[in-house]
Amino acid sequence: MKKILIAAPISETFKEWLLDHNFELILFPSATYQNEDFEGIITSNKLVLDETLLKTFSSLKWIARLGSGMEIIDTNYCNFNGIKYFNSPNGIANSVAEHTMGMMLSLLHQIPHSTQSIKKGKWAREKHRGVELSGKTIGIIGFGHTGKALAKKLSVFTKNILIYDKYCSNFQVEYIKESNIEDIQQHADIISFHVPLNEETKNYYNLEFCLKMRKEHILVNTSRGPIAPTHVIIEGLKNGKIKGACLDVLEEEENINLHLENKTSSIYTILKQNVILTPHIAGYSFDAIENMSLELLEQLKKII
After folding, report:
1. How many CB atoms lie under 10 A from the CB of residue 176?
2. On the chain, which terminus has fewer CB atoms closer than 10 Å, C or N?
3. CA-CA distance, 283 to 159, in Å (whole number)?
4. Residue 86 and residue 65: Cα distance in Å, rounded?
5. Residues designated as active site
6. Looking at residue 123, what is its pLDDT?
């Protein structure tokens, strides 16, 4: 029986298909998983497949990544050793776009703050007066599956949607305006990142970028934490360039429990500001798991 390491929350439909096709499923973490003879691995952020770990899997033929981005897989090693790899960016797109929209609207209309105020016995209407999303200029950096899904939803609220993607252009979508970084920095009220994490995008939103934003703006990051370093966000909030942030990711995630245990951590500093923070769940809806599983399954059927 062929073995597969499962390090991602796949759907029951996917599991049943694998079992019906005589795969034995080994769930991560397992004390002996590095010594197993796997044909395939289904992974997520729970398991980083670097060269050292991949070398322990001598019979590995394929890797399926639940989600978007391939930064957790040593693709150079895979290419050299004939290991196929694929991901599921389309299955995650709608969930991330909805989550992003929810955070934007919640921040602008002060929904979390007003709820907490009521819980403390206060009915503070004036203090929690909201601002509408309608008519705002939104800058979207990265126009892949998720960027496209977000722009479509935003088009109901505003026609001022500026798009920049270094590697793609000529989108021919009527409700967006293809732009550049300088235009986004000049005009955007809200800026949202939807790019993969790599050497080019790490520290993308640095202090220089922040200071070049002409308007006080809202920063949205549902991509990866290191794209917008926490210390830059804190500085931007303190100096007023950032008037609010919607964050589903943080650069501290790798050691998140240690940071949460430390009350002087930058996480608690950022939470004192006008920030909505969620625990990397934008693409983690029940629907997204089902959709991503089906997307991986269709690709897997083509190679086995």
Report:
1. 22
2. N
3. 25
4. 6
5. 224, 253, 280
6. 97
Residue for token pair 């732009």: 179
Q: What are the CA-CA distances from residue 86 to residues 61, 68, 192, 240 (Å)?
A: 12, 9, 25, 41
- What is the Cα–Cα distance from 246 to 97, expressed in whole angstroms? 13
Distance set, CA 115 to CA 106, 118, 177 (Å) = 11, 5, 36
Torsion of CA 5, 6, 7, 12, to 10 degrees: 180
Q: What is the CA radius of gyration of the chain?
A: 21
Q: In what order do the strands lie in the sheet with 84-87?
A: 23-27, 2-7, 38-43, 62-65, 84-87
Rounded distance, CA 277 to CA 270, Å? 9
* pLDDT grade for 29, boundaries at 50, 70 and 90: confident
Give me 177's structure tokens.
Answer: 């305006």
Residue range 248-280, pLDDT digits in tens? 999 999 899 999 999 999 999 999 999 999 999
Q: Contact at 8 Å (CB) between 86 and 299? A: yes
Judge contact between 99 and 248, C-beta under 8 A: yes
At residue 39, what are phi and psi to the nearest 5 degrees?
-85, -35
Taking each helix axis as running N to C, give the angle between helix 12-20 and helix 286-301, from 0 to 180 degrees, rounded to the nearest 10.
30
Query: What is the distance between the alpha carbons of residues 111 and 276, in angstroms, rounded to a whole number?
Result: 10
Q: Determine the average pLDDT of the residues in 19-24.
A: 94
